[in-house]
Amino acid sequence: MHVSAVILTWNSAAHIAACLDSVLAALDEAGGQNEIFVVDNGSSDTTPAILKTYAGTGDAAVHISLLDANRGTTKTRNMALRRATGDFVLIIDADAVIQPGTLRPMIDHLNASPGTGLIAPSLVFPDGRPQLSTDQFPTVGHKIKRVLFLRSMERQIAPAAQPATPHTVDYAISACWLLPRRTLDTVGVFDERFFYAPEDVDYCLSVWLAGHSVEVMPAVVAIHEATEHSRNILPNRLLLHHFVGLLKYFIKRRYCFSLRRIYDRIDRAAPAHRLTAKPASTPGT
């Protein structure tokens, strides 16, 4: 077994050490010959200096690429993915911390379930509150609801009501993903027409359309600071990139108001997996 971890940084000095420490510990716990690729998007803080202290540390080989400007999330992740040689690829945000005992069960599940194309742990805030890290595919109406009411939606999450075993979801945010090599072989890398978002939604849909499933494993957890700028509804540059990306996504996938055609396409591509994925609350939307 061989795991390649992929991490992007951008002014991540407050979080990257905790993230890297947790990934190094998780890879050591999983065993095997492992590697970490960190791509820095032109940070102006002390992130590059912190990264340099990790070069050559731990049992996993740490490869650091320092860019001179922010090139977004897709091109930079793809730089690392194209170098990754692992049987599994862990994609994790710089503001996320993977907990002990998380990586091995996800690897075991992927080995036991050849139809699973991507699995994610549950995500929680540092104080233990659950995050809305999985959701139905976006529509214009649901996206407006998520932007305006995300925090109240998260307060309504009832962990006890969620299945305890791994189950399918439309998509999981890319704060922490584990992919088997077979997914990269069939789906490929991220669509670089997206600068910032929703590249994770688009990739999950590609996984489904390739005949694989996207799943979450509630029994294992990663802590996510959720510092992404898309949580701030006030105008900012990354929020603009997010909405431009969403427009590109709707044009690419040829829908914006109804999920019916998307679900029909997925049903044809992955009928055995789709049984538990479609949100019960939106059968006709």
Determine the CATH topology.
Spore Coat Polysaccharide Biosynthesis Protein SpsA, Chain A
- Rg (CA only): 18 Å
Name the CATH class. Answer: Alpha Beta
Oligomer: single chain
Tell me the major beta sheet: 5 strands, mixed
What's the name of the CATH homologous superfamily? Spore Coat Polysaccharide Biosynthesis Protein SpsA, Chain A
Low-confidence runs of at least 5 consecutive residues: 228-234, 279-285
Count of extended strands: 11
Helix content percent band? 25-40%
Q: How many domains make up the 3D coordinates?
A: 1
Beta-sheet strand percentage? 15-25%
H and E string: EHEHEHEEHEEHEEEHHEHH
Counting H and I runs of at least 4 residues, what is the number of helices? 9
Structural class: alpha/beta
Strand order of the largest sheet: 3-2-1-4-10
Please give the CATH architecture.
Answer: Alpha-Beta Complex
Please, what is the average pLDDT? Answer: 89
- Alpha-carbon distance between the two ends: 42 Å
The coarse silhouette is globular
Describe the 3D structure.
The chain is an alpha/beta fold and about 280 residues long. The protein has a single domain, classed as Spore Coat Polysaccharide Biosynthesis Protein SpsA, Chain A (Alpha-Beta Complex), CATH 3.90.550.10. About 35% of the residues lie in helices and about 20% in strands. The strands form 3 sheets. It has a 5-stranded mixed beta sheet with strand order 3-2-1-4-10, with helices on both faces. Helix 1 links the parallel strand 1 (about 5-10) and strand 2 (about 35-40).
Helix and strand topology:
Layout: E1 3-9, H1 16-30, E2 35-40, H2 47-52, E3 61-66, H3 74-81, E4 88-93, E5 96-98, H4 103-112, E6 116-124, E7 134-135, H5 140-155, E8 167-168, E9 171-172, E10 176-180, H6 181-187, H7 199-209, E11 213-224, H8 237-253, H9 260-269
Parallel strand pairs: 1-2, 1-4, 2-3, 6-11
Antiparallel strand pairs: 4-10, 5-11, 7-9, 8-11
